Amino acid sequence: MLAVVKEAEPLAGRWRQRFDTSASAGVPAHVTVLVPFLDIDRIDAVVIDDLGALLGEHSPFTVRFARCRRFPDVLYLAPTPDQPFRTLTEAVAARWPEAPPYGGQFAEIIPHLTVAHGQQAHVYDEVEAALIAGLPVTANVASVSLFVSDGDRWHQHAEFPLRG
């Protein structure tokens, strides 16, 4: 489940293609709402309807990416505000507790738009310097998309408008 951020592609796209393997697998610039979600064989019409109703209760929002941040192995754009993303994640995870955010690997949800991962510090420094020159990026988040993998590439399976 991803909030696609098309507005970030002009700035981050070329870096993501080089340094984020998900980009070359078909995943657009995004802030993750919930990964992993259910196995594809569990995603039926009822799940799609439930997702549509649940996500449709939330309102569209505007977010600004004005700074870069890092996890130990990731360079990302930090969204402000980030609470709307947390709220979406918490709502979906509460409905499907068998699919905790990031498989339950992290105690805190930190919304982020990954630009590079698995690189040495000097690569992050170079990418960050280039990104800072193009910031801020403002985006309107009006939907959440469900992406599924065919084993090689990721494809949008469904899109759910935020209606509020």
Descriptive notes:
This protein is α+β, with helices and mostly antiparallel strands and about 160 residues long. The protein has a single domain (about 1-160), classed as Cyclic phosphodiesterase (Cyclic Phosphodiesterase, Chain: A), CATH 3.90.1140. It is built from 5 helices and 8 strands. The protein has helices spanning about 10-20, 20-25, 45-55, 85-95, 120-135; strands spanning about 1-5, 30, 60-70, 75-80, 115, 135-140, 145-150, 155-160. Strands 5-4-3-6 form a 4-stranded antiparallel sheet. A two-stranded antiparallel sheet has the order 1-2. It has a two-stranded antiparallel sheet with strand order 7-8. Strand 7 (about 145-150) and strand 8 (about 155-160) form a beta hairpin. The two termini are about 20 Å apart. The model has no long low-confidence stretch (mean pLDDT about 95).
